[in-house]
Amino acid sequence: MSHLDNIPSTPGKFKMEKSPYIHRLRWHSSLTKLTFWSLVFLGSILIFFFRSPSSSPLSSDPSRRSLSTYDWGGPAWEKRVRNSARVRSRNGISVLVTGAAGFVGTHVSVALKRRGDGVLGLDNFNNYYEQSLKRARQALLERTGVFVVEGDINDSALLKKLFEVVPFTHVMHLAAQAGVRYAMENPSSYVHSNIAGLVSLLEVCKSANPQPAIVWASSSSVYGLNTKVPFSEKDRTDQPASLYAATKKAGEEIAHTYNHIYGLSLTGLRFFTVYGPWGRPDMAYFFFTRDILKGKSIPIFEGADHGTVARDFTYIDDIVKGCLAALDTSEKSTGSGGKKKGPAQLRVFNLGNTSPVPVKDLVSILEKLLKTKAKRNIMKLPRNGDVQFTHANISYAQRELGYKPTTDLQTGLKKFVRWYLNYYSQGKKAAG
Questions:
Q1: Which of 44, 239, 247, 264 could potentially form a cystine with 224 if both were Cys, beta carbons 3.0 to 4.6 Å apart?
Q2: Residue 169 — φ and ψ, nearest 5°?
Q3: In 118-258, where do the E strands start and end?
Q4: Taking Cα atoms as reference points, which of 93, 103, 102 lies closest to residue 122?
Q5: What residue ranges are annotated as transmembrane (predicted)?
Q6: Based on the number of CB atoms within 10 Å of its own CB, is 19 exposed (0-12), middle (13-18) or buried (19 or more)?
Q7: How confident is the model at residue 184 (pLDDT cuts 50, 70, 90)?
Q8: Strand locations in 212-345, DSSP E?
Q9: Whether the bond into 230 is cis, omega within 30 of 0
Q10: Letter string b/e over residues 31-66, b meaning 16 or more CB atoms within 10 A of that residue's CB
Q11: Are residues 248 and 198 in contact, defined by beta-carbon separation less than 8 angstroms?
Q12: Which DSSP letter does residue 60 get?
């Protein structure tokens, strides 16, 4: 049983005009237009940088707000940061965990802390899903001794300050805008968090001295429309089926660039449908549980010609083991002061369970565990970024990380349901 179970993406040829006068007029007109548009562009930049925060259209989106709005800094704050990041075991590491109040972030932070590593969390607590769940995870982390700084990865000033206070040996970068379908509603949040946010973090890490080794969350969604299974790290990943997937693929290319230019040690982890206690309410297993208990119908998608939709469901404890193994096998970055001194480690691994399960079977397991019959609404798989199946080849992770998942879906869902019933029976309000 997990220790967290019960704790409350050909120019045309140029033809010279015959009349020099006409040529001069057109040249003058072009110059005037160029000057005009240059001034417009410059003015736009000035307005963007100097307008008040309250007038910014971004200020209404909590997932994009700057960390300058948060309260941080000062002797007492620095002391909490140092205490949380202090290594307490002989061969421990000091880790900055971004997205620490997220599902995977919480579990990884607790596991690191409990084995004696120094851990400092960072999270912006956006409202993509119920914030009360994130705050409950934060409380759990605080009880474990992990301080979560409320801030955003796009706040370079905060990130630089954190590295000034603590010389982190490692970064576990889990902060991201998650969810495939939400990208159709708010695409800018994905670019802001998954691309700009990653670059902001890497910019600070490249200049840190010493540079930390970085492990970060990519996604199985990068395999997109691939039909060869199981998915291998050697397969093409240039056919994303969603914007979320495209941002994660972009992240992998950005990681390659920073590794090549600055000598940052980078390891990407492609997670396959992670589930378990303290999970995300936007995931199917979570809202299926909620809606089955409420007597609401749940959507069961099927592919073309009634094809089965299946997922490689991976239990959170197995994912945590993979994350810690990636940190433990990370080599040191080779740069100093933003300059590369030699080749640096660059890896990407699949972390899955290798046993895809049809979604309809997931529902059957939940029905037995909840002792309630589900109202199934069979629907055609929509063109919203979801793919029909995922299946991980984990041989590379097995060889390099010693990664070996041990939890089957029946066992994992049993632990999730136990947590869910306990958590929401404590007066918590279920999402939706």
A1: 239
A2: -85, -25
A3: 118-123, 147-150, 170-173, 213-217
A4: 102
A5: 34-50
A6: exposed
A7: confident
A8: 213-217, 266-271, 274-275, 297-302, 310-311, 314-315, 335-336, 339-340
A9: yes
A10: eeeeeeeeeeeeeeeeeeeeeeeeeeeeeeebbbbb
A11: no
A12: G
Q: Which amino acid is located at 316 in the chain?
A: I
Weakest-pLDDT range from 70-74, 112-116, 187-191, 318-322: 70-74
Mean pLDDT of 250-273: 98
From residue 264, give the alpha-carbon distance in Å to each of 118, 211, 215, 332. 21, 7, 11, 8
User: 3-class SS at 181?
Assistant: helix
What are the residue numbers of the active site? 244
Residue 385 has a pLDDT of 56
**CA separation for the pair 105, 304 (Å, rounded):** 36
Residue 126 makes CB contacts below 8 A (sequence gap 6+) with 62, 63
Pick the CATH number of 176-276+314-352+390-406 from 3.40.50.720, 2.10.70.10, 3.90.1720.10, 3.40.50.300: 3.40.50.720
- Range name among 8-22, 103-117, 315-329 with the lowest pLDDT average: 8-22
Averaged pLDDT, 163-172:
98
> At residue 62, does pLDDT exceed 50?
no
CA gap 215, 234 in Å, rounded: 19
Cis peptide before 210 (omega within 30 of 0): yes
- Structure-token pair, residue 253: 């290319």
pLDDT at 427: 57
Dist. CA 144–CA 130, nearest whole Å: 22
Between 384 and 284, the more confident residue is 284
Q: Is the pLDDT of residue 12 over 50?
A: no
Residue 73: pLDDT band by 50, 70, 90 thresholds? confident
First to last CA, the chain: 29
**Nearest Cα residue to 192 out of 281, 45, 66:** 66
Q: What residue segments make up the domains of the chain, in order of their start?
A: 176-276+314-352+390-406
pLDDT of 42: 47
